TrEMBL record:
<dbReference type="InterPro" id="IPR001906">
    <property type="entry name" value="Terpene_synth_N"/>
</dbReference>
<keyword id="KW-0479">Metal-binding</keyword>
<dbReference type="InterPro" id="IPR008930">
    <property type="entry name" value="Terpenoid_cyclase/PrenylTrfase"/>
</dbReference>
<dbReference type="GO" id="GO:0000287">
    <property type="term" value="F:magnesium ion binding"/>
</dbReference>
<dbReference type="GO" id="GO:0009686">
    <property type="term" value="P:gibberellin biosynthetic process"/>
</dbReference>
<feature type="domain" description="Terpene synthase N-terminal">
    <location>
        <begin position="287"/>
        <end position="493"/>
    </location>
</feature>
<dbReference type="InterPro" id="IPR050148">
    <property type="entry name" value="Terpene_synthase-like"/>
</dbReference>
<keyword id="KW-0460">Magnesium</keyword>
<dbReference type="GO" id="GO:0009899">
    <property type="term" value="F:ent-kaurene synthase activity"/>
</dbReference>
<dbReference type="GO" id="GO:0009507">
    <property type="term" value="C:chloroplast"/>
</dbReference>
<dbReference type="Pfam" id="PF01397">
    <property type="entry name" value="Terpene_synth"/>
</dbReference>
<protein>
    <recommendedName>
        <fullName>ent-kaurene synthase</fullName>
        <ecNumber>4.2.3.19</ecNumber>
    </recommendedName>
</protein>
<dbReference type="GO" id="GO:0033331">
    <property type="term" value="P:ent-kaurene metabolic process"/>
</dbReference>
<dbReference type="InterPro" id="IPR036965">
    <property type="entry name" value="Terpene_synth_N_sf"/>
</dbReference>
């Protein structure tokens, strides 16, 4: 269990404790009005000609023509930069000297434990991936001794088979996650000729469950599954592992693989960093001399242990070896599906603490997080980890919003590489969007200042994209399985940021927040 997962569990308990004390009744204090909001009450709110009506869980807003950041450009600044003073928003738990007053010892205990977690995030930590660990376990000793280079990874596989014979996330059943993880682990054990009983149990699970791939939503297919899984089947055949091949689901997967491989610009992927570096283990005909020039500073291939393990097997590169050695050591034999995730953790922690309405307990920790984000901010944006040559719109939009709302100087130029002809994509050069990526772009686009046209374009595009998905009931995301993503999107579309009361937003987010039950989708599921 990673630091981020543990901190979310603690935050969950903490928020519930706060909610009990307040009985879910919240005061909203804003510039020109004070209103009382109950769990089922109605709100009449007039702030510069904006009216908000709350009936049950539905909010309607007749919005202002301009947001406060545009209308009061000279007011909402600090040293010439945009600035939001969070302590001016919520003061009811501060004494006259601005010291936090804890309602009881239980909440104080939660705060202290979360502070410890926030102070030890470091490179970030998510749950271990059986799939990636299996690839690491396959690596032979680079000195040619015929033994595993990472015996602790092989031992992790042995110790973490689930009771039904599968490997994968133990809290939620996803056929894609369980099947690709199980096949990878069976291959690892078979290749080293150990634990045949566990292999047989894993193969039985595969035979009994492979048809369930047809039943799952394609949006929740792990990253690169259509390329990586057929690659594993090819390896299994060479090891005489009998994998069921008559499933209609497999035919569909192979069709997807062939289509994707025809679209991959091989000449481009060997010249410039792209997201393809994250999934090299499924790619045929690679030119390693060229690819090694595209390694990340930490020796990984776009922070993927499985991709880097495959590269190490092909090249015996010392930087790949060092990256994997560090990861295996940190996670006690297992490895996550992506590492590090430092920027992702620092950004999302700040966002969650603020949306849950408890950020005032963690002022110094939040400042440290925001300083960290800014330290690794680049003119092209960021991805989930520092020092990356590939950026994504999700982390960039979230980071931009957090930095701007805390008074840091960031320009809108970071969004240019994600835009073409008024359309925005998740990664430069791609043509696809994701619900959470566009949702976070929409949130970021609302903290705009005069003449920031690209944010105006981003706001228009993301709004239309989300409304279309909402109208067709397709608010499923390829990156996360969340408790109530449709509810989050609905609130954001109905109530613009500049018209939303912080306490009102918190009231709704308490219902939407899944905490440790939310699961992210990478090459495998993770938390």
């Amino acid at each position: 269990m990673g630091n981020y997962e543990i901190s979310l569990i603690l935050v969950n308990h903490f928020v519930l404790a706060v909610a009990k004390i307040r009985a879910l009744s919240l005061y909203a204090r804003e510039l020109d009005s004070t209103v009382f909001i109950t769990q089922f009450g109605a709100v009449e709110y007039d702030h510069h000609h904006c009216s908000v009506v709350l009936t049950g869980s539905k909010i309607q807003c007749k919005a202002v023509s301009k947001s406060p950041t545009e209308e009061y450009f000279d007011v909402l600044q600090k040293n010439g930069l945009p600035f939001i003073n969070w302590n001016d928003i919520v003061e009811d738990e501060l004494d006259k000297e601005k010291k936090i007053l804890y309602p009881n010892d239980e909440i104080k205990g939660f705060v202290e434990r979360i502070k410890v977690m926030l102070g030890s995030m470091d490179e970030g930590e998510i749950t271990v991936s059986a799939y990636d660990t299996a690839w690491v376990a396959l690596v032979q000793d680079i000195d040619g001794n015929g033994r595993p280079e990472f015996p602790s990874s092989l031992e992790w596989i042995v110790e973490n088979q689930l009771p039904n014979g599968s490997w994968g996330d133990h809290l939620i059943f996803s056929a894609h996650d369980r099947i690709i993880s199980t096949l990878a682990c069976v291959i690892a054990l078979t290749s080293w000729n150990v634990h045949p009983g566990k292999c047989q149990k894993g193969l039985k699970f595969l035979n009994d469950n492979i048809s369930k791939l047809e039943e799952e939503n394609p949006e929740h297919m792990p990253i690169g599954f259509e390329v990586a899984f057929p690659s594993l089947i090819d390896i299994a055949r060479k090891l005489d592992i009998q994998v069921p091949e008559d499933s209609p689901a497999l035919k569909e997967i192979y069709a997807r693989r062939n289509l994707k491989l025809t679209k991959i610009p091989k000449s481009l992927m060997h010249k410039v960093p792209t997201t393809l570096l994250h999934s090299l283990e499924g790619m045929p005909d690679l030119e390693w001399e060229k690819l090694l020039k595209l390694q990340c500073k930490d020796g990984s291939f776009l922070f993927s242990p499985s991709s880097t393990a495959f590269a190490l097997m092909q090249t015996k590169d010392q930087k790949c070896l060092q990256y994997l050695t560090d990861a295996v050591t940190k996670f006690n034999g297992g490895v996550p599906n992506v590492y590090p995730v430092d920027l992702f953790e620092h950004i999302w922690v700040v966002d969650r603490l603020q949306r849950l309405g408890i950020s005032r307990y963690f002022d110094s920790e939040i400042k440290d997080c925001v300083d960290y984000i800014y330290r690794y901010w680049t003119k092209d944006g960021i991805c989930w980890a520092k020092n990356s040559n590939v950026q994504d719109i999700d982390d960039t939009a979230m980071g931009f919003r957090v930095l701007r709302m805390h008074g840091y100087k960031v320009t809108t130029d970071v969004f240019r590489q994600f835009e073409k002809d008024g359309k925005f994509v998740c990664f430069p050069g791609q043509t696809t969007q994701a619900v959470t990526g566009m949702f976070n772009l929409f949130r970021a686009s609302q903290v705009l200042f005069p003449d920031e046209k690209i944010l105006e374009d981003a706001k228009k595009f993301s709004y239309n994209y989300l409304k279309e998905k909402q109208s067709t009931n397709e608010l499923l995301d390829k990156w996360i399985i969340a408790k109530d993503l449709p509810g989050e999107v609905e609130y954001a579309l109905d109530v613009p940021w500049y018209a939303s009361l912080p306490r009102l937003e918190t009231r709704f987010y308490l219902e939407q927040y899944g905490g440790e039950d939310d699961v992210w989708i990478g090459k495998t599921l993770y938390r």
